[in-house]
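Batch job 17 of 40 flagged for manual review because the log was empty.
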Amino acid sequence: MRAYYYDNLATDQRLPHDLVPSQPVLEDKLAALGVRFWSFPLEGHEKEIERICTQEGYTRGEDFAASKELLGEKVYMETLKAFFEEHLHERDEVRYFLAGGGYYDVRVYDSETPSDAWIRIAVDPTDLIAIPNGIYHRFTMDERDEVKVIPLFKVTPQLINIMRGEETEIHPNRIRYLEKIRFVN
C-alpha cells in the first residue's frame, strides 16, 4: 500500500497524480481517518478472506471485474467516470484486489490539512482496503485498465453512492463519521 497527497492536476485520472516532491501519508494518518488496510498473498487468500469476514462481521459478495476488454470502450469509460464521482456510502466499502489495480482517493478532514485535499491510496492485487461509511471518496482504475475484486459487506451486498452535495453534509452517516474522527484526532 502506498498513500500520498493527490496533486489535483487536470490530467488522466488513471495516472498516479503524486506531488513533486511526493508527500507520503503514513498508515496512522489513514487509520485516524478510519481507512483500514490488509495485504496477503493471492495464494491462499480464501482462508484469509474467511478469517477477516469472521473477525469483522463481513459477508463475501460475488467477484466483480471491469476492463475495456470485458465492457467495451464506451461502457468502460462510463464506468470509469461513474467510479470517479465523489460520493459517500451508508456502509463501509471493502474490497480485496485479485487483478489489476487503481486508486482510492479519500478526502482529508483534520486541523492540519485543507478539507478539500485528497489522499490517494494505490491498490494492487493482494491488497484489501476498507473505506469507512461517511467519508467522501472516489475510485479509479489505473493505466492497466482492469480490476477484479472480492467485495465484502456488513449487511446486504449493495452499496448506494450518495453524491457529494449540501444534503450529504447533514447525512447521519457523514455526521457520525466526522464525530468519530474528531474524537480520534
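Reviewer: the log was empty due to a logging misconfiguration, but the result itself is present. The two ends are 22 Å apart (CA to CA). Unflagging and moving on to job 18.
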